[in-house]
Amino acid sequence: MHLLLATRNPHKMIEIRLILSRVPVTLHGLDEFPGFQDVEEDGATLLENAVKKARAAFRYTGWPSLGDDSGLEVDALDGEPGVRSARYSGVPHDAEKNMDKLIAALRDVRPERRTARFRCVLALEGYERDGATSHTFEGCCDGLIIDERKGRHGFGYDPIFWIPEYGRTFAELGPEIKNRISHRARALAEFRTFLERGLEVQRV
Ligand code: ITT
């Protein structure tokens, strides 16, 4: 099976390729389709945007396409930046400015009240199963937002997303652990189960 990863974010791309490395699918990137125009991510939810990205890629290429929309939900900010995580401090995306803005917004919030979660929604379009050609998967990872950047791995908000169980940020943990426990890893685990079930059905 060929699967197009409908993302322009090279970090997501690397994580998804690693997490799916043992799954018998051939992964492709949007770089193979230079004429493809990016969609506007104007949905009100992660789900809407994930579907929009996957659907546009499937329509353009004809290949089953997987869109990833993800975001950081901070409880003390009523779930912000959420769906606006990438452009929290404006366009074009700037991870450093986004972290500065988030740290400033939480300046008066006590450490124990800085609970947050990363959420990842994946949309698969163009893959027929059980009478549907549209499927979605979701994963979350809980943590706390800290004031000081720690670690050099990962991307986006990873240096200030601290995981209590490990006593480290995503950026300190590195890809091996992040790709086991992250929101993206959990959503992709659901996706993998879905694919493997389909492959078993084909074998029967
Ligand atoms: P595509 O739409 O092309 O996939 P994007 O970076 O614009 O790339 P999103 O719209 O899903 O992706 O934005 C998600 C933002 O949330 C991303 O830019 C980061 O700022 C943040 N984010 C998502 N997953 C993350 C992760 O694993 N680690 C750190 N930050 C993450």
Q: Please write the string of helix (H) and strand (E) elements.
A: EHEHEEHEEEEHH
Question: How many distinct beta strands?
Answer: 8
Taking all residues together, what is the mean pLDDT? Answer: 95
Count the DSSP helices: 5
What fraction of the residues are assigned to beta strands by DSSP?
A: 25-35%
Shape: globular
The unreliable regions are none
Q: Calculate Rg over CA atoms.
A: 17 Å
Largest β sheet strand count, sense and barrel closure: 8 strands, mixed
Helix-strand makeup class? alpha+beta
- Helical fraction equals 25-40%
The bound ligands are: inosine 5'-triphosphate
Question: Overview of this structure, please?
Answer:
- It is a single chain.
- The protein is built from 5 helices and 8 strands; from the N terminus they run βαβαββαββββαα.
- The radius of gyration is 17 Å and the shape is globular.
- The longest helix has 21 residues, at 183-203.
- Strands 1, 2, 3, 4, 5, 6, 7 and 8 form an 8-stranded mixed β-sheet that branches.
- With 204 residues, the protein is an alpha+beta fold.
- Helices cover 34% and strands 26% of the residues.
- Helix 4 packs parallel to helix 5 (183-203).
- The model has no long low-confidence stretch (mean pLDDT 95).
- A hairpin with a 2-residue loop joins strand 5 (115-129) and strand 6 (132-145).
- The chain has helices spanning 10-19, 46-61, 95-105, 170-181, 183-203, and strands spanning 2-5, 26-29, 65-74, 80-81, 115-129, 132-145, 161-163, 168-169.
- Inosine 5'-triphosphate binds at residues 7-9, 12, 41, 68-72, 85-86, 93, 95, 98, 118, 154-158, 170, 182, 184.
